[in-house]
Specification:
With 142 residues, this protein is of the alpha/beta class. The protein is built from one helix and nine strands; from the N terminus they run βββββββββα. The protein has two domains: 2-111, Leucine-rich repeat, LRR (right-handed beta-alpha superhelix) (Alpha-Beta Horseshoe), CATH 3.80.10; 113-142. It has one helix at residues 118-141, and strands at residues 2-3, 10-12, 25-27, 32-35, 49-51, 56-59, 73-75, 80-84, 104-106. The termini are far apart. Keywords: Glycoprotein, Leucine-rich repeat, Membrane, Receptor, Repeat, Signal, Transmembrane, Transmembrane helix.
Length: 142
């Protein structure tokens, strides 16, 4: 167990802590950490509780968090995280409270739906045009 919550620590989350492979509980909440959540956090395969809430983490939630199969508690609330929540594997077990207070997050259990990406928009337009073409062609053939 490593609990350094509420210590006014700042800067990036020390990447070296992801080398403590037997770590089960990691609580770094209520500090002033900045930067991204390191992808290497997924090396902590025994982790059952992760609390990084109330910091200044930014960027996307690493997809690799979903591979932590023992993770039963996750709190990433009240940061500056953004983008879609990687809602697969273990991540589907967490509700909206795990991600609350990150105005840039979308998808997953949140009520905020992610905007359609440009590629998805083009695909949607293509499907609609193909449907219209198909309908007009069938009308001409009748």
């Amino acid at each position: 167990m490593l609990d350094l919550s509420g210590n006014n620590l700042s800067g990036d989350l020390p990447i070296e802590m992801t080398n403590v492979l037997g770590l089960i509980v990691l609580n770094m909440s209520r500090n002033h950490f900045t930067g991204h959540i390191p992808k290497s956090i997924s090396k902590l395969k025994q982790l059952s509780s992760l609390d990084l809430s109330s910091n200044w983490f930014s960027g996307a939630i690493p997809q690799s968090l979903g591979s932590l199969s023992f993770l039963g508690y996750l709190n990433l609330s009240n940061n500056e995280l953004s983008g879609p929540i990687p809602y697969k594997d273990q991540m589907v077990t967490f509700d909206a409270s795990s991600f609350a207070g990150n105005v840039g997050l979308c998808g997953g259990p949140l009520a905020v739906k992610c905007p359609v990406g440009e590629g998805e928009k083009l695909h949607q337009i293509f499907k609609e045009e193909a449907k219209r073409f198909s309908m007009s062609t069938s009308f001409l053939l009748k």
